[in-house]
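Chapter review: from sequence to fold.
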Amino acid sequence: MKKLLIFTILCSFLGACQQYSGPRHNAVVRIKYSKNTVVSDRQTVSIGNSNYVSITQNPWQYMNNQINANVPNNSRIKAEREQLLRDPKGFETIALRSEPYVYYIINQLRKNNLPVELALVPLIESAYDPLATSSAQAAGLWQFVPVTAKEYGLKQSNYFDARRDLIASTNSAISLLQNLNEHFNGDWLLTLAAYNAGEGRVRRAMEKNQAKGLPTDYWSLDLPSETMHYVPKILAIVDIVKNNTRYGVKLPDCNYENSLVRIDITKNISLAKIAQYTGLSLNELTTYNAGYVQQTVNGPFHLLIPHAHAKSLFQKLQAENLVANEITELLQDIPHAPMPFEVKSSAVQHNDLNNKNIRSIAENNTNNNQITYQVKAGDNLYSIAQNYRVKITDLLLWNKLKNSRVKEGDVLTINLADANPI
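The token string follows.
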């Protein structure tokens, strides 16, 4: 996945530049609170038979407390760290831009037993701007190029680009990182290099070294210039976050009330009209809902909005019969739940028909540990495996599939009890 850095301010302290197309917005809405305002640090969400504790405290402080990586002090990391520290205020500005999105990202990483440091990847990839587009046509927070986006179930149309959607892109990025890490036997440095340069490029570099009798670890490989800087840059940021006091860097003072929640919409509505119901500008709404190419809520029919504005907006939209459900906090989206962008809330009859089909399939199943799943439009094995926390290889085996291609209407068997841990 070819990705370049963005924003002139980011260039100044990350030492790289990206050609940018499309609008740029800084849509962080800061909510002010009195000293009497109390925001809970965590909430309990039930997942299967266990309790999972969602983090609603400052995610950057949480990340700081969780980091246990031993960052080498080699010359490449040192050079990247020195470059970053030339403009600590610039770093703080970009880090603060993560506020609406980083709660969901860190909680999804935790749910999937991945290092929380991976929440720093969008900082490098897009400066936490969902509207970011590279010269290689990589888009969104995680900078998916079209071919990888298609492989990981991120659909693109004239109306919706899932690469720019927080929920869809984060879930696909986690699938991609999990698969790469498995392919590289748990080596996170090679995993991150492959995320940047592509798995094939890293494999070829390893094979070239192997043929010469040279080591095949990340530091020994001859990779593209961008990738040679990419991994040391991430490690330098990990070191800065972990030791922010020593380096004189202030971590963002994030508040959960500024994080995004989801409101399901029942019909097409422009973001401009929604802006009239809130204190948010059209630019802010467009950034939070960057997947909607034409600034109209359609396709997925979900609206992302800061927690502090959600209740008031929901009530106003409810009075106009424009909402389908209660407000959904993203931290409650569990891995095996239907992906939010698959919700088709504009047609009740269509939903009822799908529910009947699913119930019919389920009623024919007598094994509580085995379920059947009907493939929907936009599904692929990667997204299905992610939702149900099973391995793609198991899905292939259980369903006697010769390849990973599935189509709408296919019925898959999923053995939850026999699934290998991810």
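Two observations follow directly from the output. The beta strands are 42-47, 50-55, 260-264, 269-270, 296-297, 302-306, 328-329, 370-374, 411-415. The first strand starts at residue 42 and ends at 47.
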